[in-house]
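Hi F.,

I've been meaning to write this up properly since the lab meeting, where we talked about keeping a consistent format for the predictions we share between groups. The idea is simple: the sequence comes first, exactly as it goes in, then the structure tokens exactly as they come out, then a line or two of notes. No screenshots and no reformatting. I'm using this chain as the first example so we have something concrete to point to.
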Amino acid sequence: MATSFDALAERYIAIWNETDPARRRTQIADVWAPDARYVDPLTVAEGRDAIDATIAAVQGQFPGMTFRLAGPVDGHHDQVRFTWELGPDGVEAPVVGFDVAVLDGNGQLSQVLGFLDRVPVA
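Output, unedited:
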């Protein structure tokens, strides 16, 4: 999977927005390595099934909100970082964070480390 860092970040965000489980699983299989790992302050997901379950849980927690890239994508070697927002279209996003992703030798995501910069207060 040879792709630009910008395209990879866009595909990654699209997966977080995909609500059809079958399509999301197909996209995960294309972008994420089988033994991939996702870690943020709230969860650790190891493997494609756990990553899919994490994405579905986030969608359930924030219905009607979508992820979007917020700023430029920066990458070198086999790593990429980008800022994202989660919120309703057309308004300031209540959730903002950034991710650092590491690619494997096939260009698939092997690890994503997520950081939360702004989260809503309960």
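Notes:
The two ends are 40 Å apart (CA to CA).
The chain has one domain: 5-118.

If this format works for you, I'll send the rest the same way.

G.
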